[in-house]
Each structure stands twice: as structure tokens, then as C-alpha cells.
Amino acid sequence: MAKLYIYNTLTRKKEEFKPLGSEVGIYTCGPTVYDYAHIGNFRTYVFEDVLIRTLRYLGYKVKHVMNITDVGHLTTDDEFSGEDKMLVAARRERKSPWEIAKFYTEAFKRDMRSLNISEPTILAPATEHIQDMIEFIKRIERNGYAYMISLGLFLDTSKIPNYGILARLDLSKLKPGARLPVHPEKRNPWDFALWLKAPPEHIMQWDSPWGRGYPGWHIECSAISTKYLGEVFDIHCGGVDHIPVHHTNEIAQSQAAYGKIPANYWMHGEFLVIGDRRMGKSEGNIYTVEDLKKMGFTPLALRYFYFTAHYRTKLNFTLEALRGAQNALEKIYQHLRELPEPTGMPERYLNKFKQALCDDLNMPRVLAIVWEVIKDDSLSGGEKRALLEEFDKVLGLGFVSQKKVEVPDWVRELLTKREQLRRERRYAEADAIRERLRKEGWEVQDTPDGPRVRYVKVT
Ligand code: AMP
Ligand code: ZN
Fold first, then answer.
1. Regions of the chain where pLDDT drops below 70
2. CB 357 within 8 A of CB 307
3. Ligand 1 centroid to residue 38 C-alpha, Å
4. Mutation test of ligand 1: which of 241, 250, 285, 288 has the most ligand atoms closer than 8 Å to its C-beta?
5. Which ligand is nearest to the Cα of residue 67, counting in written order?
6. Do 219 and 253 form a contact (C-beta atoms < 8 A)?
7. Could you give the 3-state DSSP secondary structure of residue 400?
8. How far apart are CA 119 and CA 113, in angstroms?
9. In angstroms, rounded to a whole number, what is the distance separating the alpha carbons of residues 11 and 27?
10. Which pTM value belongs to this model?
11. Which residues line ion ligand 2, judged by CB < 5 Å?
């Protein structure tokens, strides 16, 4: 098996990936289903999909667990000035939080499918794992890491060895209260809620040893990952914003409960940005997959666009750049429609492809290899198709469905008729035929050797 190198945020190094067992366990933080996910979020999910597809391509068996946050994610990172995002959405849309969760979970799954993101092995809504969370918190409490205040049960971060190790937080230099107000009952400014007591207006609440309430945001990922992947698993992923708070606190929870950092490799996707600002709801600069579809973009063009930058660098979103990606993808499709059935694959290209993937998922290089293959005149059509279809196992750009298109008889008949009309100088009628063919996806080009027709669009 080829050696895969991935960048581990925990060690700040590119490391050779060594799995714990025969099945690779991956946990990825899923969406908060209070609204449509935006294309910034999907950049992270597509990066994770590439990782999973790469592992499978290299021959690993993968178990992928993703949570759905449908309770407990507050509008601010402190525990008393914010409100549960689900409740805000419920009020906005005059629905119950359960209806909100159901609606946006379905929308999320639809967008995932349209971006060709492989389905997680387990997709776990937080609200279906409340008991697992309670058990996890009990363990933390039994080990002496938790304390009760008027807001609920909190984790004492001063008891965690190297709290903030993932983000390399230097607590001595951080100013308490600089970013967020600190509740006076907290023992340490970085302590966070494991369980929150519910005010009466909090519709989602459950009984627990710490009173009726709801879980803090971070505990769902600890409880769900441990339940399905064990106390320590292989890879934990998310966006870079998760490094200083969410993943830092997941690590603290696992250390408190089991004395262990829960994953060996921590991988983080950089932001999709617009200019110098990250794409985000609070920034007011988001696009959804649905928005782009309405503008005439295909979701797979967005997927292609994501691959134009390495996942650890920022990617600037513009509609022009997306249009460029869509044109590039369409050109690849056109080539594929002229290529015959696949034959053997030249090793040198296969090796290049694997090398690019194994070098921390270098997708811009993979795209460059795709174009190299297309332009390489020493390759036969069958070899080209074989390679492109092989690459598509990881790219997931729909290459396989772009089969060679034979020109049907009705198109040929119309072309002959058009030629006849042109000879008779009846140009308006000839143009009408050309236009009709164009609408059906057939583009006519007049060349010195006569008209050529090719299929340019799947309608
Ligand atoms: P959330 O629903 O806010 O928890 O975010 C879901 C995922 O999207 C997380 O892994 C975030 O880190 C990631 N994310 C949020 N904004 C962006 C962005 N602008 N670019 C890339 N990933 C993002
Ligand atoms: Zn998480």
C-alpha cells in the first residue's frame, strides 16, 4: 500500500499515516441544522470526502462517523449571553426546533448528494444520543473534573494536563474576558459547560443528574465518537475554526473521561473566504448550493472549484472563478464524450496521481495531472478514459457518466437538411435548424471540411 502523508495539527507536521487497526476510524464534525449549510461549510465537507475517498482508494476500510448538531450550539461561545441556535431558528420560522432540525437535515443530505460527497457510515443526530452524553459526563464527574454552578455543570480545565495543546494556546498570555465575558462563578476563564440548566423557554430539555436541561455543544462529539469509534480512533477532522475551542474542548473531555487524546491525527480545512473575510452567516456573505444552482452552476463545478486550492490554504470565492471551474469541467466532459471505452492504464500516470494524493491530498496537482492526460498525444483514447475514470474515484466529478455519444440519425438528417438550405441561400431557415440542435445540446461548427457536430450538454 502506498504511504500516505497527512498534516497533523496536533504535531504541526506532515506525518505518515499509520492506522490503529484494520478499519480506519474517522470522525468529522457535522452541521448545525438551524439553516442551510453554505458553500464555506461544504468546502470542509468536500475536503473530508477527499480524505475518505483517498483512504478507500488506497485500500483501507473506513468507518466514517458524522454528527448532526440539533441542540446545544449557542449563538456565542460563552454560556450565558448566547441562545441555542435551534431555538432562534424555530422562532424565526414559527416551527418547533424538531421541525427545523428535520427540514435542514434533509436539505443538508440533498446538498451532500449533489456534491457527490460519500455518505457517512453513521450520521448521528445529537438529540438521539442524549443518554450517551449523560454517561460520558458522569465519567468526567466521577474522575473529579467537573463542578456545578448556577448555570449548570462545568469542566475544570485547570485539571487537564496541557489544556489547549491542539491550538498551542498559551494561557498565560491570553487575556481572560478579552474575547468573551467570563461568568463570575467559573473557576477558570476557559472552563466550559458540559450540561446546561434549561430556562423554561428552552423547548429542548431532558432530565439528568444535574437537573433538567440540555448538553453543552462539545460533549456530543466526544460521546458520539467514543460510542461508534472507541476511546481512541484514527482521524478527527473539521474546519480550522474548530481548533481553539471546539476540538480543544473535545480533547479536554476525553482526557477527563479516559485520560487520552481521542484521535491520533487531527486534520483541519482552511476557510473559503471572500476577499479578506471568511464566508460565514455572521459575516453576511454566504452562498448556498441552491443559490448557485439558481444562477446556472452545477454543484460539481463547485466541487471542481474547491480542488483548485490545497485544503490547507485559504480559497477565495468569486463567481468568475466558479464560472472558470464550470467551463473547465465542461471541457473535460467534452473530451470524455469523444473517448472510446477504457483500456489499460499507463503506470506512470497512475503513480503520479497516487503521489499527489499521498502528499497530503494535493488536489491542485491532481487537476494538473487530469489536464496532462487529456493533452498527452502519446496516449490512446482508451488509455485516457481509463485514467480519467480511475482518478474520478477520488475526484468524484462525474467523469464515469460522460460516455461517448454517437450522433443519432435525427441529428444527421437535420444537418443534411441544413446543408441543403444553405446551398439554396435560405440562411434564416438554416439558422433555425442550428438553433434547434443547440437547444437539444448539439453544437454545429462549420469547418473547411464541412459541418461538425458535437454534444455539449447533457439535458
Ligand atoms: P458549523 O455548522 O458552523 O459547525 O460548521 C460546519 C463546518 O464548516 C465546520 O467544520 C466548520 O469549521 C466549517 N466552516 C465554517 N465556515 C467555513 C468556511 N468559511 N470555510 C470552510 N469551512 C467552514
Ligand atoms: Zn465536533
1. 178-179, 457-459
2. no
3. 8
4. 241
5. 2
6. yes
7. coil
8. 8
9. 18
10. 0.91
11. 29, 221
